[in-house]
Amino acid sequence: MASTAVNSATAFSSLGSRGPYSGGKYGTSTSIFVGSYDYSYEVVSEEGKKVEVKITVEDETTFNSLVHPPIARDAWDKWIGGPVDSAADWFGGPMRTKKQRVSWTEELEEK
């Protein structure tokens, strides 16, 4: 099937692989780009059994986040990824650090 070929190509191009402890692919282009993120939540209002919660997710993504290999990460970050990120941020080009923030509210009701 075409989708299998596309998935395989995506995993290969992003240095994806299957690890014995990962439970599957850990190197897809999306997971490498987003990587880790921070989140917070705050109770906005409470009324009876209803609670409104604001959730915020923040991410700071670098070019290195996209291209780093899943192995030899420390050496890569020190000698390749870090210097490339510093240069990209200094020049302010399209590969500079991207900051993302998403917020939304959810209404929860106890039943």
Main attributes of the structure:
2 domains; 38% helix; 3 strands; 111 residues; elongated
Describe the protein in words.
The protein has 2 domains: 34 residues, no CATH class; 76 residues, no CATH class. Helix content is 38%, strand content 31%.
Over all CA atoms, what is the radius of gyration?
A: 19 Å
- State the domain count: 2
The strand line-up of the biggest sheet is 1-2-3
Helix tally equals 4
Largest sheet: 3 strands, antiparallel
- Which band does the percent of strand residues land in? 25-35%
Structure class: alpha+beta
Mean pLDDT: 76
Morphology call: elongated
Low-confidence stretches: 4-25
Question: What is the helix content?
Answer: 25-40%
- SSE run: HHEEHHE
Please give the alpha-carbon distance between the first and last residues. 45 Å
- Number of strand elements: 3
Topology:
Elements: H1 2-13, H2 29-34, E1 38-47, E2 50-61, H3 63-67, H4 73-91, E3 98-109
Antiparallel strand pairs: 1-2, 2-3
Brief description of this entry?
The chain has 111 residues and is of the alpha+beta class. It contains 4 helices and 3 strands, in the order ααββααβ. About 20% of the residues have low confidence.
